[in-house]
Design goal:
six-stranded mixed beta sheet, transmembrane helix, ATP hydrolysis activity, Rossmann fold, binds adenosine-5'-triphosphate, alpha/beta, 20 strands
Amino acid sequence: MGACTGKSSKHGLTHSREVRLRDLRDDYRYSPLNAQDSSFFGSSVASKEKLDIIQFAAPIFVAEEGETFHVHLMRLGALQGRVSCSFRTEQSSGKAGSRYVHTEGQVIFEDGCFEQLIEIPILESPTWSATLEFKVVLDEPMGCQLGKYLKVCRVKVIDQDTFPTSKYSEEIKADSIEDISEASLFIEYMKLMTKVPGNSWRLAVTLLFDQLKNAYVWFTLVSSVYMVNVVFGHGTSKTSQELLIPDDPAKTAQVIGLMYVSFPLLLHLWKVVKIKMDLNGRCKLFLQSSMMRKYMNYSDTSRSEVTQAEVVRFITQDSAKLARSISDVSSLWETLGKLVMLNYFAVSNNPDMTWAVITMPVAMIFWSLMREGGWVVAKPDGTDVFEKQLEDFVGIVSENYPLIACYFQRPAMNDRFAARAAKLQETEIPESSYDLTSEFFFQWLAPLFVGCYMAFYSPLVLSGELALGTFLATISVFKEVSSNFVDGYGGLKKVRKAFDPLVQISIFLNRSTDVAMLKMSVDNRVAETELCRRKLMKNPGDSRFPTDQIPIRLEKLSLMLPGTENFLFRDLQQSVQQGHLVELIGNAGSGKTKLIKLLAGEVAASSGKVLTPSHLRCLLVTHQVFLMDTTPLQNLFFGDPSSVVEQSERHRMLWILQKLSMDRTRQLAEEEISMLQSSGEIEEESLEGFCCVGPRRRAEMDPMEMWMPKDGTQRAADVYKRFKGWRSSLSFQERAKLHLARALIMNPEILILEKPLMNLDDKESETVMAVLREFVSNRGVALDLETLEYRRPRTCFYSAERRTMNTKTDVVWEFKEGGQLVTSAPDAHPDSPMANSQSDAKSPKRKGR
Ligand SMILES: Nc1ncnc2c1ncn2[C@@H]1O[C@H](COP(=O)(O)OP(=O)(O)OP(=O)(O)O)[C@@H](O)[C@H]1O
């Protein structure tokens, strides 16, 4: 039995602390960790359990923008009397006021009422956004209790627009995005960026205040003319009236000097403000989070069309390149402003310069066009393709390193890498020399104009027809215009560099998702479940929870293999009651995995349906073992992170590990629990030591933060460091069991396992089967027997490589030749409901072992 000691702090507070739990009894019923803490068992729980349950009809709903959406609720139990609870929407990625209307209120179930709706208006948005979601939460139950898991549901909102605009939706949907003019696409992208909340005023302020730099250049030109013509020319009858400080050229010079200093100060201040406004960062954040959300909702087809390396590149690099383009556009705007200002200055001070003002830009534009057209020097192929090839190759090599090493292919990979890197290098040289050859003209133009101007206009200065200040300022203008044109051209090139990432990102963000399929499946399941419930409620029998009698059905289920005309199976018709352990067998390639994926909703049927009651959470556990590069506890509670804060859940998790004989994982989990507890206490003590935070501090600490330290905090770094490399300390079979334990901790109502015994020897298979049996018979592993009746039945489907004569299975679905799926009963097992009744119409009510 687990033990727990109380700890008395110096402030007299008693903190319960979990210590290493070495001797958990192998029994369904287990004791609380702390002898004084019986809050999760006992009479209070038992009486609470008699109450009806109110919960959502599904864990996830899918809405469409612009519709008035209805979230479905269900009441389970005796349906006697009036019960109610409150509800409210809670924003997550979708925000109230932009994606939906915040709604809250009371939902009442009158006597006999077993279903209700909550209406939530979904807002129409004219611009593109990724699939955003919000939550609906039930609270304050009156005369009832809330479903443990379904007191919260998520609502995903499908956005029908295409990225970056619906203007090109036809081209985008026809997969011909390359046909759209890149410049037009870019303009639409810029428009979208201005619609990101908070971006439009930031962009307006940036465009306006970036002109400060031009105002400074204007000031330097005007002031140098003024210094030469007025300050130094003081005393002549023409200029004496124009001094800022009348008759005092020295003081006037000091004022101008002061202005010279003040302007850069102002510019510096603006730069500080601009950094703080972080327009680039905001665009990058929008793009990256949208891309991540989109990728998370990708359909199987979309996911197979992009490589891992591409996803990383798009989300980290291309999004950053594209986001930077907003700064490039504002710089271009600034350059344009400067060009207009310089030309105006030249003409206003010296009207004879109109010819130069026109000739210079025309010559440059002409040269640019010739350069772009390849008439100056042939444009080489870009390096982008080769860069991408190299990145993809590195991705493939790192992904498949163990294979490469085991097959002694490291030298071959090095050679192939070197060949690709050399190819990239070869393409970089012509590009650099192309830039040099074609851009020299911009640098040469200023000396050409200055030389001509000096040669032809100096006599005018000598004869007094042209003021010296104006002459010198005009020379500066030539230099400025020339360098400005170089800057402008460079800016244009930078903006154009964003075109390619924009096209790639547009393709990425317009790939198909599975949200529409999810909507169809959820809507079908909810409607079908309601229909079944209405029928059942007319004649509920003596069951307290008739809803649990809705079977899981395959209705005329057919699957056509992609890209072929062949059906893998056709019109499958099967039904199994909730609360059964179902084994799926058949020859290699008969369709077991496909059926498993259909059951989990991972694959869409060609026709027919899989009908699982909507309020049952389905979880697919793949045959491929995944362990996240986080801590053991974060892996174990991955499916339901918030439950880690509950002592009973942590205890249950340790029990599950014990039952699966996962000694090493249990040791690691215990160490992590112990570490998180003590580091929480140290943090509390140090806080108390440093400031006036009193002993209340621990109670105020966010429990979630206590058990799952936030990324970037010292506690997170310490825990991560302590458990670095923990995965490699697990045996192969223990890893496979951890992959399964994670699912048992989440405790879904329908557990779907893809070949779970594939990685296990006979003994371990036996252990796992015993735990799966418990999962089904006890409606969850390591859960209290007394509350069994009030938990929803657990059903488990698993595919097996071979018929195992497994005595723990309730039902066997076997694929026969020709794609037939037949049901056969396994050998009778005392735990199996099939042993007591040949009918599977009732869910098992096992009373423990
Ligand atoms: N995308 C696809 N295109 C064409 N055929 C496919 C595709 N996916 C699966 N198949 C075929 O469908 C059949 C069923 O595949 P499935 O993975 O369900 O088999 P299985 O019963 O799990 O077999 P095994 O026990 O060998 O894993 C196989 O013959 C497979 O080759």
